[in-house]
From TrEMBL:
The lineage of its organism: Eukaryota, Metazoa, Ecdysozoa, Nematoda, Chromadorea. It catalyses: alpha-D-glucose 1-phosphate = alpha-D-glucose 6-phosphate. It is a multi-pass membrane protein. Keywords: Isomerase, Magnesium, Membrane, Metal-binding, Phosphoprotein, Transmembrane, Transmembrane helix. This is phosphoglucomutase (alpha-D-glucose-1,6-bisphosphate-dependent). It comes from Caenorhabditis briggsae.
Amino acid sequence: MEHYGVSLSAVLVVTVERAFATYYVVDYESKSRNWVAVFCIMVSLIYTQCFVIPICFFKASLLYIILFAALWAVFAKLVLMGLHWFNVQESKRLSWKAENSRKKKKVNYTLGKKFQVEENVKVIKLLEAMSFMLVFLIFFVIVFIVVPRVYLGTETYAGQVMISLFDINLALGAILIPFICIWQLRKTRELPFTQKIYCLKKRRDERQVNPITVFEDVTKSYFEQFQTSWKLDMGIAVVETPTKPFAGQKPGTSGLRKRVPEFQQLNYTENFVQAILDAGLGSKKKGAQLVVGGDGRFLSMEATNVIIKVSAANGLSRLIVGQNGFLSTPALSNLIRKGHEGRVVDGGIILTASHNPGGPKGDFGIKFNCENGGPAPDHVTDSIYQITTKIDKYLIAKDLECDFTQVGRYEYDIDGVGHFTVDVIDSVTAYVDLMKDIFDFPKIKSLLAGELTGHKFRVLLDSMHGATGPYISTILVDCLGADANNLLRTVPKPDFGGGHPDPNLTYAKTLVERLHTGEHDLGAAFDGDGDRNMILGKNGFFVCPSDSLAVIADNIDCIPYFRTRKVNGFARSMPTAGAVDLVAKSKGLQVYETPTGWKYFGNLMDAGRIAICGEESFGTGSDHIREKDGVWALLAWLQILAERKETVEEIVSKHWQKYGRNVFTRYDYENVDAAGANLLMTFLEAQLPAFVGRDFSANGVTYKVAVADNFQYTDPVDGSVATKQGLRIVFEDGSRLVFRLSGTGSAGATIRLYVDSYIPSNDSSRLLLPAHELLKPLVLIALDVCKMEQFTNRKAPTVIT
Ligand code: VG1
Ligand code: CO
């Protein structure tokens, strides 16, 4: 009887293994697969009952055994031939379907199914080998058992030896076969055995095969890899990782900005990226394409990696990544708008904290931009935030490795999700091409070379180790022939060389000082992510951003891009002085006053309502992209200078003489205690209604309040309302005081105080006086009404613009 036990166990092992292998052969989605497995078990049972037992215990006749073995072999062969035929047909059908979808430009063909069929064909080959071995086993039994039993008899010594040999063989088989099975399966993928089963199960449960969008994307070599290898390559596993919400992942004026160590917490970045994909892409997530890049600050590489892995796991079809994860904000906006290889790009993720310092203890930031290339509007950032407060898991393709330091295409098959591509692109080319389309490069080149005015026009440009360096070098030196020695800090550094990449009079001090020597005709500085600009004239003549916007708007016809377009209006953020309003009025165009933050310009530009817009915070731009653009602003100035052949100062003074001057200053109280700052705002807001109609005096000048409120904006395009956008005190002569809390800081609070006043063009005694002198009384009034010193303990601001 013990022979029966041993033999049976061996046979069972073979049965289970066969059933399991058969499980692969039939379509993943088909229920019939279970039946095939059951069928295999049945066959094996019959095999044991009708073959092993009769042979071992009832001394069956030789004829019976041979007949049985032969029948078995024929049967196995027939079943396998059938399966093989089915799979080949299926493969042909799918190829045909793929070809057809490609012709019809339908892009939702599921290629994974084809791979699967090809896998099946391989498994069938494997089974054929195994069935051959089974037949061999049957003959082995005949020789070693049946012959001794029937012809030698169990009583003889030789018979006993033969039977023992067979038993040893079976026992060894019983031990080895399960190991061989597991080893075979593990070999197919570097995954634990259980996970392999899990992946298969998941794929089946979701009734989903790999969605692939463009058939051509799958290179020939990818197929070859499938055909030549015996591996059942299931792609990269998606790991569902449990997590818990982090407080404060609320995007501010321009994305989420925090200190680097905060971003370095386990799951912090992953959570936020998952929230961006869910809220930002919504139902478009599966198969979406995004552009990814940033200003190269500390943590950019790590964050890019996380974005790639989380995007792959979430079913995005493609990421377009700037080489080394590097792209300036304007360049990224352009890449979104441009589309990629003829297909729409659904948005982008920008890794920057812009003008905030970088490095291991500095700031990092993540911002989501939409399909139009602009920063996500409030309703999107709000839902991103909502998700971060409830998140309990994120998806990640942990094992995916992408070397985005090298330009090229990288492709992956993600388990149960689909095909995923990373296109690593050159960070500079597309943007430079865009600038060439907008401006008249040859004309600017001749200005710099001195061909227009008879003397060389020298620029001094400071990239502050931020993102503009590579763009500025390519455009200014390679395209426009400027002297490379006049480009400062062009190498992007993870910590901006320890500096504060904010192009204002305080943080770009060296540039201002060098301009004062009078050697250069124009100076400009740009911020960390390349969207801000500061323009200076000869001898450090400062062009206030509100004026810069107005001058560009006034001279819009100098820029070739606008000559062929209809210009309908301009816009500025509320705290920006109203110089551009006067230009719009004189040109008979519309002007819009939006809350602080570039996202509010997006709708206006998309609707064709505005061509140029700007903010007092050194942001100027146009509808060529949906972000402000530092390099564009510089080129706009150079183009105007080339057309008008005057100095910066002449152009600005003439502007004032024509329109009057909107004098502006901004006081920043950076990093003050958040509680004090909030109190100041609450205190001031409570008093606003009582201010209306009241007189305020300082230095012998008196102003009467006309309006005092908390600015609210209704988007004229979609009707959305943004409230609490800054406290305004507007005086009867149009002078204004504005108080806002910054929304871009990472720690503490920053209070911004904006003061502006209008000097009419006929007031020639005051028109050209320095801004601080003209605005002194208003500043004193402002500091007094808000009790600045009492609430913040600060006697002076950190930055004055
Ligand atoms: C500041 C500026 C605002 C600008 C924003 C983003 O915001 O005031 O005009 O749009 O930064 O610019 P806040 O909330 O700190 O005042 V950037 O170059 O940092 O992306
Ligand atoms: Co910026």
